[in-house]
Amino acid sequence: MARLRVHCNVYIQIQIAHFKAQLSKARTLKQALAVYADSDITNKHQVAMQVDMRKMESDINKQLQQYNTEEKTVQYVAGGCLPRVTCIPVYEKQVKMGGVIFPNCVEVHVCSGCCQEAQFTCEPTKTETISFSPIIRFENEGNFRIIALEPFKTINHTECSCKCKLGTDTCPSSAQILDKELCHCRDRICSPACYAMQKCQILHSQQPQCVCKRPIPGQNNSYFCPFGSHPDAYCRCETEAEANKVRVD
Predict the structure, then answer these.
(1) 165 three-state secondary structure
(2) Is the pTM of this model over 0.70?
(3) What residues make up the domain containing 38?
(4) What are the tens digits of pLDDT across the range 99-118?
């Protein structure tokens, strides 16, 4: 039962993480409701019957009637994580050399916006190198003269996504791993999962294993079983074959 509970909790967390990731891409209420209708966290039967978007919007509007506001209410477009037009300077070093650069800045797309949770950041997933030309410099040496500069190259973001900004060294314990999808530290899942008297931990190997919270009877200062076996519910070492035999009997 404990084994099933551990896997179920992680599965539910992953479902919610997927939902939040898709919700970060929604720009309007209709899109957000569509994400909800398609997500695994909704009632399966309800989804199969096709959720009525109009009813969902109607329910939301009824709830909004309790709020009285004198300010102007407008239809929003959610920020989301998207490539947005921004201005970047052109050849700053050339400007310092004198003369007048045209254009002194150009428009490119840079990933920006918000994600559903603070531990995620909006990052580019696809980029391209683009060149701007002609870039010219006006020089005043008695009379203005025009000099053509080499094309100005820079990076343009074309696709963005919310990515976990935590590092792999974030987790304080070797018994935990950084789940990039959930973007937080979680206990390693032992296979088979540990019982109530055990915990999942790394001791002398890189693979997570079930470790007893007290020494295993008959073994001096030992909290874990040798390779090929694992502690049972009473912290006795058994192989998977022995465990299966007990279940069958």
Answers:
(1) coil
(2) no
(3) 1-42
(4) 788 888 999 999 998 888 88
Distance between CA atoms of 234 and 89, rounded to whole angstroms?
A: 68
How many domains, the chain?
A: 3
Average pLDDT over residues 24-28: 80
* Residue type present at position 40: D
Q: How far apart are CA 117 and CA 204, in angstroms?
A: 36
DSSP code for 193: P
Q: What secondary structure letter does DSSP report for 192?
A: S
Rounded-to-integer distance, Cα 160 and Cα 95, Å = 32
Partners of residue 151 on adjacent β-strands: none
DSSP calls for 193-240: PP-TTEEEE-SSSSS-EEEESSPPTTSTT--BPPTTEEE-TTS-EEEH
Q: Quick one: angle between helices 2-23 and 29-38, nearest 10? A: 150
Q: Which two tokens stand for residue 124?
A: 């580019």
Q: Which two tokens stand for residue 76?
A: 């929003």
Q: Are residues 85 and 157 in the same domain?
A: yes
